[in-house]
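Incident log, structure service

09:12 report received: a user says their structure output differs between two submissions of the same chain.
09:20 pulled the input from the user's history:
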Amino acid sequence: MGSEENPRDSSLWLQPLISIMDSDPPFHKAYKTLFDKTADKATANRINSNSNNKDHEDMLQLVIVKECDLPLIDLRRLELGEREREECKSEIARASQEWGFFQVVNHGVSGRLLQKMKIEQEKVFKQSFDKKSQEDKHLNFSAGSYRWGTPSATCLRQLAWSEAFHIPLKDISTSSAAGLDYNLSSTMEQFATTVSSLALNLAEILAEKLGHKSTFFQANCLPSTCYLRLNRYPPCPIPSEVYGLMPHTDSDFLTILHQDQVGGLQLVKDGRWIAVKPNPAALIINIGDLFQAWSNNVYKSVQHRVVTNLAVERFSTAYFLCPSYETVIQSCREPSVYRKFSFGEYRRQVQEDVKMLGSKIGLPRFVV
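09:34 re-ran on a clean worker, output below:
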């Protein structure tokens, strides 16, 4: 059969590729200067190197990071007898002290809802880049909800090869009124409602284990102050050069994350980077800067990052337990490691540091 008679030889087979390219952010175009700078540096290194100099070669190699399981906690034990309940609470506190990360199962978020969230998330990210960029017009999200790359990046190592919708919870309940698909808005609302309850429960347990049966989190971390973030990490042609998200700590009290099975999340443990092994049944919990400050360094907000993948896209959904900008963060113990500060002050300092220095400084700025 001649090629002109083969329908698969038409441009139809290109459509999936064209569609993907149409939906991806224009990283190469927007950050051409950074790519050119890296290419020039690589050329110079090759010219200046000899057969025994492997500095540049080593720089480009992916560091082998050991994959491991996070502490796994079955939250069903909170509904059992006193002994089981207290042991479960102690495990949550111990993981927050020693790891700053842990994972939970039997967390109250059904597998069906998690799968539905991923399906709806994929659909919204597969829309054209132009449509996503005008999120207030086409998707009824607040202007600025859609984010990609790193505007302040001065080198490829500061560039985030990712795109995200960062959505205040208060926007979700009204988002189906116009422009946004009902299935997406209702799924986000179900997910946010369920994980909000989980986050507050975990925060109260952590406060209790410090000797504080506190209503602080219930009073200050409200749907009007918390956020949901839908993440997508497109395939990256240079995974050894660019992060999906560069190393950072979270600026909230707690983050609850559901990731797919692609993997890519890494964190620092005992001075080394380790890769988090995906667990389809689990949600990942990590301590944020505010909880480290509130607990007076008992609970740890640890550095973590997302590495890119050459061939496969990755999706995750994160919930951030945050107070209002006016909320004052003060240590629950004395002597305090950190001075009192408002969440708004903290955010402004982080944004200023990222703009001026290319990366976040965080809590060290607020040490007494």
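09:41 both user submissions now match this output. Likely a transient worker issue. Closing.
09:42 reviewer note: The mean pLDDT is 87. Residues 49 and 55 are 8 Å apart (CA to CA).
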